[in-house]
Amino acid sequence: MTTFTRGFRGRRRGEDDRLPPGQYLTEDFPVLSAGPTPHVPLDRWEFTIDTEAGQVHRWTWQELTALPYEEPAVDIHCVTSWSKLGTSWRGVSLDVLFEDVETTADYALVHSYGGYTTNLPLDDLLDGKAWIAYRYEGEELAASHGGPARLLVPHLYFWKSAKWVRGIRLLTEDWPGFWETAGYHNYGDPWREQRYADD
Amino acid sequence: MQADHLDGNALAGPLAEIFTADVSAAVSRCASCGLTGPVASLRVYDRAPGLVARCPGCEEVVLRLVRSPDAAWLDLRGAVSLRIPLSGTNPSAVLSDEGGRSGAER
Amino acid sequence: MTRWRAARLVKVRDENPTARTLVFDVPGWPGHLAGQHVDVKLTAEDGYSARRSYSLAGTEGVELTVQRVPDGEVSPYLTLDMEPGDELELRGPVGGWFVWRPDGPAPVLLVAGGAGIVPLMAMIRARRAAGADTPFRLVYAVRSPERLCYADELLRPDPGVSVTLAYTRRAPEGHPRPPGRLTAADLGPYGEADCYVCGPTGFVEAAAALLVGLGHDPARIRTERFGPTGD
C-alpha cells in the first residue's frame, strides 16, 4: 500500500500527448551512466561495423564527420521515466553507414568505449530511424552525454541509444546487451511501455 | 570525472530488500582483478536504469541490481565470492525487521 | 527483509537557514547504529515517486537532517514544505559498514564535508549516550558559518571529543584558521585511528587521499559519499 506524501510534486511535470505512458516531462537533460565516462582522443576514435561474415567497415573521426549528415529533432524517452521533447541533433544516418555493408543478419549488438552494450533488431537501425550523433543543440556532444559520438535511436527507450558508441556487430542470433541481461526489456518500445523483461 | 559515483553503502537498502544479512558489510572478491574488500567500498553508479557496482581497483562491474515492480534482478558475475559476516551480534542482525540486535549496540 | 514503512513527521528543527532536522514517528522502529541510513520514498498524488537516502542523525528513533539543495527535487520539499502530520515512506536502518559501535576501542577520527556531518554527529551522540571514553576528533569542513549544523552542541565542551572547524569559503571574524580547502594540517597529527569520512564525492576523495598521505591505513578509512548533488 502506497503512502502519498501531501504536497510533494517532484520536479517532473506535465501532460502532453507526445508523452508515452508512464513518462514525465523534463526540461533539463539528466545524465545517466553505468560507469566512468570514457575519454577517447579524436585521433584514435573509430567506428566499426562488423558483419556476420567477418568483414569490418571502419570510419575514423574525420571520415565520419565528412559524411553527409542530418539534423533530426526528436523526442527522447528514458526508461527511468523522464522524457524530453524536441531535442535537436546532428549525426550520420545509419543508412549512409550501411550503404556498402553486405549482410543478411537480423540482429545488431551495439558496443561502446567503456564496455557498454545494447542489442536491437537491425531493422530498427535502418530506414531513417537511427543516427550516429555527434552534435547536440548546436554544440559538440559533451562526454557526459555520450560524446564524441553516440547512437541515437529515439523510437526506443534511451538506453538503446548507446553513449560513447564504438561499433556495431551484426549477428544472426540475438545477443542481449548490458541492461537487457539484467531485467530490462529486450526491445524497449516506450509506446508499449516495454520497460522490464516481463512487460 | 570522479564525482559521478557513490559508495557501496548505497546498496544496503536495495539489497536489504532481498537478503536478511547486510550484504554491504560483506567482503567481495573481484572476478576481474582479484581485489578483495567490503561491498561498501565498491563504486556505485546509481544514475542509471539500475544500480551498477564497480571494483575500485579495475572499474569492472562486480554487481548489478535492477528492481522492476514485481522482481529484483541481481547479477553477481563480477564477484568470485562474498564473505557475509554472520553471528549473533553482527551488524546484519539490526537489519532484520524482527530485530534481534543486542542492547549493547546502542 | 526490509520493507517500506510509513513515517509521520512529528517535529522539525531548523539547524541553519538551509538545513532542517526532521523527526519522524515510525511505529516498530527497531533501533539503529550510529552511521546507518534510511532510504526514503516520496510519492506524489499522481503516482510519481522519488527516492533518496539520508543518514540518521540521532541515537534514538528516526531523526534526519536534510541540507536544502537549490533546484533539488526532494530536499526543498523536506526542508520547506513538509509539515508535522505529513507522511512519507522509509526503509531501514540500512548499512552495516559505515557504523561506529561504542565498544570499539580505537580512537576515532571523523572528517565531515558540509552535510556529511550528519552520520558523524550520530557517532558523537552515540559515544555520549553510551558514556564511552574513546578519544574522538572531528574535523568539520563547512563553507561558511551560516552553513554550520549542530553549532551549539558541537561548541559545547564534550570531554574526550575535540572539534576543529575548517571554513572553506568564509570564516567568522577572529577564527584562527583562514578560509580555504581542507589540508593535511587540518587532519594531523593524530595517531592510529578508525577514520570515517562523509561528504560530497569530491570532498571524500580529497579527504581520504590526505588521510592516506598522513599514514593512515586505507583499510581503516571508511567513506560515505553522497553524490554530486546530495539532494
TrEMBL record, chain A:
The family database entries (Pfam families) matched by this protein are listed as: Oxidored_molyb (PF00174)
Instruction: Tell me the Gene3D superfamilies matching this sequence.
Output: Oxidoreductase, molybdopterin-binding domain
**Per its UniProt record, what InterPro entries does this chain match?**
OxRdtase_Mopterin-bd_dom, OxRdtase_Mopterin-bd_sf
The signal sequence is none
Q: Which parts of the sequence are annotated with region: Disordered? A: 1-23
All copies of the Oxidoreductase molybdopterin-binding domain together span 35-179
Task: Tell me what this protein is called.
Answer: Molybdopterin-binding protein
User: What lineage does the source organism belong to?
Assistant: Bacteria, Bacillati, Actinomycetota, Actinomycetes, Streptosporangiales
Automatic annotation (TrEMBL), chain B:
Note one Pfam family from the annotation.
DUF6510
In terms of InterPro entries, this protein maps to: DUF6510
Highest taxon in the source lineage: Bacteria
Region: Disordered; residue ranges are 85-106
- The name this protein carries in UniProt is Uncharacterized protein
Tell me the organism.
Microbispora siamensis
UniProtKB/TrEMBL annotation, chain C:
Cofactor annotation: FAD
Q: Which InterPro entries match?
A: Cbr1-like_FAD-bd_dom (IPR008333), FAD-bd_FR_type (IPR017927), FNR_nucleotide-bd (IPR039261), MRET (IPR050415), OxRdtase_FAD/NAD-bd (IPR001433), Riboflavin_synthase-like_b-brl (IPR017938)
What keyword terms does UniProt attach to this protein?
A: 2Fe-2S, Iron, Iron-sulfur, Metal-binding
Under the heading PROSITE patterns, the entry gives:
FAD_FR
* SUPFAM superfamilies found in the cross-reference section: Ferredoxin reductase-like, C-terminal NADP-linked domain, Riboflavin synthase domain-like
Q: Which residues form the FAD-binding FR-type domain?
A: 2-100
**What protein does this entry describe?**
Oxidoreductase
In which organism is this protein found? Microbispora siamensis
